[in-house]
Design brief:
The chain has about 475 residues and is an alpha+beta fold. The chain has two domains: about 170 residues, no CATH class; about 230 residues, Immunoglobulin-like. The protein contains eleven helices and 19 strands. Strand 17 and strand 18 form a beta hairpin. Helix 1 packs antiparallel against helix 4, helix 1 runs antiparallel to helix 5 and helix 8 packs antiparallel against helix 9. The chain is elongated, with a radius of gyration of 35 Å. The relative contact order is 0.12. The C terminus is likely disordered.
Length: about 475
């Protein structure tokens, strides 16, 4: 087998394919680096304004202390324990219309939103009835609104509670992971049992906005001028409308569905603010060209392998030969496609960049192969086949859900074409080193010559010569 010229030719082709994987990995590193640059720009914009916002509240925090008896080493010990009672709203509705502004830094950009959110809630303070007894001292209650980044608070109206107006003060009482504002209440106000509150929060943030549905029944209505929302998180909107002018979405849920009240059931809750489920929308770019380019590069080995195998098949069926250097140059043009795609997509968008890169590289390969293969028709056919592959790849990238189905169908068609073209080819004859080089048998000293094989298409033994 190791004396077979065909074996060494196939081994050389596989080696060339593996060699082309080096620039492919380098391109993946470039994509990671450029994507990191973009994220650093988003971080810079977030640092100068505010980050993604997650809102928890409104809820009422009632601090209290009570005497507790315990037994230590057989001795009774009496000490005062400080706790907090959390009253969640029975009904909570939030509505707003944040406008999105694109901030640019170089070629990169980030989405910054700003707008007013209107909060309305209804509370039932009967949860405090069990605290009204001797030994319990109730402190000053507060209505709390917590945010992930309080720098985004542009303005907040006074809390409206019946006919009363109460100003908000800095600080939230929900642990170190949350900051925000609070409005001090009185026990007399809570003794109303059921009461309504409202306020308006003007907020700035970047990339995403989330509201924790803390009420027994919670609703959120958002509308914005951003036409590319991504509805993420634990709850999808029940109603949504997205067009070129923006979007409108409505969420609704309750404690039976989300069990959020369980997190505040005890008077000493350890609430992970960031882990609470929320109504969420992400203001994203319509196409992440870095992700699409990375997915395209994963098909590079298929493109290079199919092109090299086409050359090999062309050599086997005709009298022309393609040198390894020529294989390598065509492979370099195929890899250059991905670099051009990455570079142009940062400025022109993915679709236009893909069109320019595929046409440019196909034209370059067509001009080069027209000389290598001895005619514009052959070079044009190879370039046309390459453009067809680029078109299929674009369809795979745009239809991620059907990528496996389309890829399997493409491979089946390619395999069927190869089997049809080579169904009459004598591979033993192709692999014969004497026939491949056109030499006589070294074991024969007579004047008898070996008949030259006839290749498919009627050519002579040059059809099977390798790179000599």
């Amino acid at each position: 087998m190791f004396k077979s010229v065909l074996f060494w030719k196939i081994a050389t082709l596989l080696g060339l394919i593996l060699l082309m994987m080096i620039p492919k990995e380098m391109l993946l590193n470039v994509i990671s680096e450029r994507s990191g640059y973009r994220q650093s720009v988003i971080d810079k914009v977030s640092d100068s304004t505010s980050r993604s916002q997650k809102i928890l509240g409104p809820l009422i925090v009632v601090p209290y202390s009570e005497w507790v008896e315990s037994e230590v080493d057989g001795k009774k010990k009496r000490e005062r324990i400080n706790r907090s009672r959390y009253i969640l709203p029975e009904v909570m509705t939030v509505s707003g219309a944040p406008d999105v502004d694109v901030r640019r830094l170089g070629i990169y950009k980030a989405q910054v939103y700003q707008g007013a959110l209107n909060f309305n809630a209804q509370f039932d303070a009967t949860a405090l009835d069990d605290l009204i007894h001797d030994g319990v001292t109730i402190g000053r209650p507060s209505l709390v609104v917590a945010l992930s980044d309080s720098r985004g608070i542009q303005q907040i109206s006074p809390l409206t509670m019946g006919s009363q107006k109460i100003n908000f003060e800095p600080g939230a009482f929900l642990g170190r992971t949350a900051n925000g504002v609070h409005a001090e209440l009185s026990l007399a106000q809570l003794q109303q049992k059921k009461f309504d509150i409202s306020f308006t929060l003007t907020l700035t943030g970047t990339n995403s906005l989330s509201v924790v549905p803390i009420g027994r029944s919670s609703e959120l209505t958002l509308q914005s001028n951003w036409p590319h929302p991504n509805f993420v998180g634990e709850f999808l909107p029940l109603q949504r409308k997205v067009d070129e002018k923006g979007f409108r979405a409505h969420w609704s849920t309750n404690w039976l569905a989300n069990n959020i009240n369980i997190n505040f059931a005890s008077d000493d809750p350890h609430v992970d603010f960031n882990a609470l489920p929320a109504f969420s929308t992400s203001l994203i770019e319509p196409v992440d060209h870095y992700q699409l380019t990375e997915r395209a590069i994963k098909y590079a080995i298929l493109f290079i392998g199919l092109t090299f195998f086409s050359f090999f098949l062309f050599e086997s069926l005709t009298s022309l030969r393609v040198h390894p250097i020529q294989y390598l140059l065509v492979g370099a043009a195929l890899v250059l496609f991905y670099l051009m795609l990455l570079a142009f997509s940062e400025h022109l968008g993915f679709t236009l960049a893909y069109t320019i890169a595929s046409l440019s590289c196909s034209l370059l390969i067509a001009i080069y192969l027209s000389a290598v293969l001895g005619g514009w028709l052959r070079g044009g056919l190879f370039a046309g086949g390459l453009l067809l592959l680029y078109g299929v790849l674009f369809g795979l990238l745009q239809s991620e859900d059907n990528a496996l189905l389309l890829g399997a169908g493409l491979l089946f068609i390619i395999l069927a074409a190869v089997m049809v073209l080579t169904r009459r080819l004598d591979w033993y004859q192709v692999a014969n080193p004497q026939l491949l080089t056109g030499q006589k048998s070294s074991e024969t000293n007579t004047d008898k010559t070996v008949d030259k094989p006839v290749a498919v298409g009627g050519s002579n033994t040059d059809a099977f010569r390798l790179w000599d």
